[in-house]
Design goal:
Layout: H1 2-14, H2 18-92, H3 103-113, H4 124-132, H5 141-148, H6 150-158, H7 161-176, H8 182-186, H9 204-207, H10 211-249
Helix pairs in contact: 1-2, 2-3, 2-4, 2-10, 6-10, 7-10
Length: 251
């Protein structure tokens, strides 16, 4: 093709048609430029298609990891909700006659209240996505922002567990050791029923007359309620992002 164009230009020069030669040369340049632009556009289309394909794969993997976290966080939240409800029951028993209430029932309620499970996040894919810079392949700006802020959201959803556990470890348990039987409480938890029965009976009359214990329980309840609110917010955000991913994948 180039040889043909060269021959045409040569023939025009030989015939002394300088004006025609110039016009033809300009036209040839324009055609070359147009060809280059078309080639660049095709290349851009190919690149866009590759990025879109990569985005689809990213969204699928991201959805899978978010579902894992959703399931885990729901279990943790429900565990804390059960513990919170047990705390309400315990607080209502202060200044009441608990002598008719079975001790093993009280052991069970207190054991449930003491449950303080920690959310273990699964974020390996999200971290690799951020480290590689491929998070920029995500076109949805809200979803991209969520991924970038994921680590901070995990911290927000779990930070109250630390001061709550300290109230158990530093205040409640040292206070009730030797008076409220640990073995009998733990036996009520799933997987611990084979633990030997404790050698002494818990003194719940003392427990529910103790003002310090009532205050400690109330403080634990306050921290747990804040923790549950943050867990619920994070869980709602995860559900929204999963729905957003589904919308992107179905486009």
């Amino acid at each position: 093709m180039i040889k043909i164009f060269r021959n045409i230009r040569k023939k025009l020069l030989e015939q002394g048609k300088t004006a025609s030669y110039i016009k033809y040369a300009i036209g040839e340049i324009i055609l070359v430029v147009i060809g280059i632009l078309i080639a660049l556009q095709i290349n851009n289309w190919n690149d866009t298609r590759k990025i879109r394909k990569s985005e689809q794969e990213i969204l699928q993997n991201l959805k899978s990891e978010l579902i894992i976290n959703k399931i885990a966080l729901e279990k943790i939240y429900n565990s804390h909700l059960d513990a919170f409800n047990s705390g309400i029951t315990l607080l209502k028993l202060f200044n009441t006659d608990i002598l008719t209430m079975p001790i093993n029932k009280l052991d069970s309620i207190l054991a449930q209240f003491e449950m303080s499970r920690t959310f273990e996040v699964s974020d390996g894919y999200i971290k690799s996505l951020l480290a590689s810079g491929k998070v920029d392949y995500i076109q949805n700006s809200v979803l991209k922002t969520f991924v970038g802020a994921f680590d901070g959201q995990v911290i927000d959803a779990t930070e109250e567990i630390i001061p709550m556990k300290k109230l158990f470890e530093d205040r409640l348990w040292p206070l009730i050791d030797g008076k409220i039987n640990s073995s009998n409480r733990i036996r009520n938890l799933s997987g611990y029923s084979n633990l030997p029965i404790g050698a002494y009976t818990s003194n719940y009359t003392w427990f529910f007359e103790n003002r310090e214990i009532e205050d400690i329980l109330s403080n634990i309840m306050a921290w747990r309620l804040d923790l549950m609110d943050d867990e619920k917010t994070f869980l709602d955000n995860i559900n929204k992002m999963i729905k957003s991913i589904d919308n992107e994948l179905n486009q």
